[in-house]
Amino acid sequence: MNLLTTEAVRRYSIATATEVLTPALALYVDCVDANIAATLRLLDHDATRWRPHVKTAKLSLTMRRLTAHGVTNFKCATSLELLTLCEAGGLEIGRAHV
Question: What is d(CA 63, CA 54) in angstroms, rounded to the nearest whole number?
């Protein structure tokens, strides 16, 4: 299956790519939501069965999307990640020892 259809290239192109400072990370909310929904389907839509380990506090958008889908249990390693999770709506957060 060719994922790079003309529509996909048009939809996910960054018009001002020459103005983007690098390194950069482009997040597409519809793709994030689709991945979250796919995982929840595998868990019979029981968000309490999922405890994602948050790797970086820089992705608060992803954390907010997870909580919007009902995922409120997380794991993290740093105090900054813990703070970001709390601000994003995480309710039960385990802190891994590093």
Answer: 8
